[in-house]
Automatic annotation (TrEMBL):
This is YoaK family protein. Pfam families: DUF1275 (PF06912). It comes from the Bacteria. InterPro entries: DUF1275 (IPR010699). Keywords: Membrane, Transmembrane, Transmembrane helix.
Length: 226
C-alpha cells in the first residue's frame, strides 16, 4: 500500500511517462508505423508476420522485441533492484536513455530499423528502471497496468472497500503524462520529423540531472524505504 509519495516519485513518474508518450508516437508516425514503448502489439504483429511468411517484417519486429528486452537487461545490470529507492543509480540509467534516444534520430532519418531498435532499448531501460514502489507496480512506458489499477480502485470504492487515494493520483499522473507526451509528439512530428526525439532525450537527461541533485541534497539520511 502506498502511504506516502515523495516529490521525486511524482515528478519522475509523470516526466518519464511524458517521455514515453512522445517516443511512442514518433515510432508510430515514422516509416515503420511501429509502437516501441511496449511489446504486446509488437508480439502480436510478429506472430502474424511469421504466420504469413513475411521474413522482413518478422526480422524487424523481432529486433524491436529483443532491443526492448536488452534495455531491461541493461537497467537490471545498472540498478540491480526493481524497487524504487532514493540513492540508486537512476541518473546513470537516464543518461544512457538520453544517449540512446538522441542516437536513434539519424538512424530513423535514414529509415534504418536500428533507429527503432535504439528507441525500444531506451524504453525497455526506462520501464525496467521504474518497477515498484511500496509494493505497487509503477510502469511509465505503457498504460495497461495503470488503467487496470484505476479500474480496481474504482471497483473497491464502489464496493466500499478502502482504496489508497494516492495510488489513484499516481495512476492519473502517469496516464496524463503519457497522453500529454503523445499529443506533444504528434504536434511536433509534422514540423521536426524524427528530430522530435531530441526533446524526450533532453527531458530524460534533465530528469536524470535533477534526480542526481535531489539525491545529493538529501544524502544517505534521505534514503526512502517504502
Amino acid at each position: 500500500m502506498i502511504t506516502r509519495l515523495p516529490t521525486w516519485v511524482w515528478v519522475g513518474a509523470a516526466s518519464l511517462a511524458l517521455v514515453a508518450g512522445m517516443v511512442n508516437v514518433v515510432g508510430y508516425l515514422g516509416f515503420e508505423h511501429q509502437a516501441v514503448t511496449h511489446l504486446t502489439g509488437t508480439t502480436t504483429l510478429l506472430g502474424a508476420a511469421i504466420a504469413h511468411g513475411d521474413a522482413r517484417s518478422s526480422w524487424h519486429l523481432l529486433i524491436v522485441v529483443l532491443s526492448f528486452v536488452g534495455g531491461a537487461v541493461l537497467s537490471g545490470f545498472i540498478i540491480q533492484d526493481s524497487t524504487l529507492r532514493l540513492g540508486r543509480r537512476y541518473g546513470v540509467a537516464l543518461a544512457i536513455e538520453a544517449i540512446l534516444l538522441a542516437t536513434a534520430v539519424p538512424l530513423f532519418e535514414r529509415q534504418q530499423i536500428a533507429g527503432a531498435a535504439l528507441a525500444a532499448m531506451a524504453c525497455g531501460l526506462q520501464n525496467a528502471m521504474t518497477a515498484t514502489y511500496s509494493g505497487a507496480l509503477v510502469r511509465t512506458s505503457h498504460l495497461t497496468g495503470m488503467f487496470t489499477d484505476l479500474g480496481v480502485f474504482l471497483g473497491h470504492r464502489l464496493r466500499g472497500v478502502h482504496a489508497e487515494p494516492r495510488r489513484l493520483w499516481l495512476c492519473l499522473a502517469i496516464i496524463g503524462g503519457f497522453l500529454a507526451g503523445g499529443v506533444i509528439g504528434a504536434l511536433l512530428f509534422p514540423h521536426f520529423a524524427y528530430r522530435t526525439l531530441y526533446l524526450p532525450a533532453l527531458l530524460t537527461g534533465v530528469t536524470g540531472v535533477a534526480y542526481a541533485a535531489y539525491r545529493h541534497r538529501r544524502g544517505p539520511a534521505g534514503t526512502l524505504s517504502p
